[in-house]
Amino acid sequence: MSKINSTRSGCKDVFHAFMVQNATYEGELEIPCIAPETTVPEKLISFSKAVSGTDYDAWVHFYEDDVSIERLWNRPFRYLPILKRYKGVIAPDFSLYRDMPLVMQYWNIYRSHAIAVWLQSEGIPIIANVRWGDKRTYDVCCCGVPRSATIAVGSHGCIKLLQDRGFFINGLDYAVKKLNPKMIVVYGTAPDAIFGKYKNVGIKILQFDSDYMIAHRKEVGE
Fold it and tell me: What is the pLDDT of residues 174-183, one digit of tens each?
């Protein structure tokens, strides 16, 4: 880990260096390190709904279109008071599409961590989100994530198609071996075929239905 200078006198902060002003970093790409969090969510709310919501007992998540997260990146101080009303935040889930240029995937990992570290510095409880693309991102996505702690992953949209499922399973397996989490918060389905082996070694799996799953149940009258 290292600490690097994050300010430049007289320059406009177009890279949001203020977010990592007091951060430490891990890996060759210097991904900001997120501190471990001991509290866990009892319910989740998407960032889009949280902006105008009042269910402040929930934790805010970003498992939705990137345009929603870009709002936070582009205007962080506008949304900071809103996020402070809630119990906590799962770190932003910027997309890592496998056909996206690798440098952009790394940039999205960095941005997720930069926002998380900044929100932690503002007193907001944060659970690190781990998102990967193909095997080139498996190690980088674990940089700056606390070990032997709670992590979050999003399975929604990642395991339905066979070609996606393999990347999800392999990346998750890598992350679990690397990070040795005590708990995994899962947004979306958490089938035993994928998560059962982690339960068997004592890792707690805390699963939350996606908004799509909830809406689908209402449509079919469950």
Answer: 999 999 999 9
Reduce the secondary structure of the chain to three states and give it as a string. Answer: CECCCCCCCCCCCCCCHHHHCCCCEECCCCEECCCCCCCCCCCEEEHHHHCCCCCCCCEEECCCCHHHHHHHHHCHHHHHHHHCCCCEEECCCCCCCCCCCHHHHHHHHHHHHHHHHHHHHCCCCEEEECCCCCHHHCCHHHCCCCCCCEEEEECCCCCCCHHHHHHHHHHHHHHHHHHCCCEEEEECCCCHHHHHHHHHCCCEEEEECCHHHHHHHHHHCC
- Measured on CA atoms in the order 177, 182, 187, 188, is the torsion positive or negative? positive
Alpha carbon of 47 to those of 83, 141, 209: distances in Å?
9, 22, 15
Where do the structural domains in the chain lie, given as residue ranges?
A: 17-220
pTM: 0.91
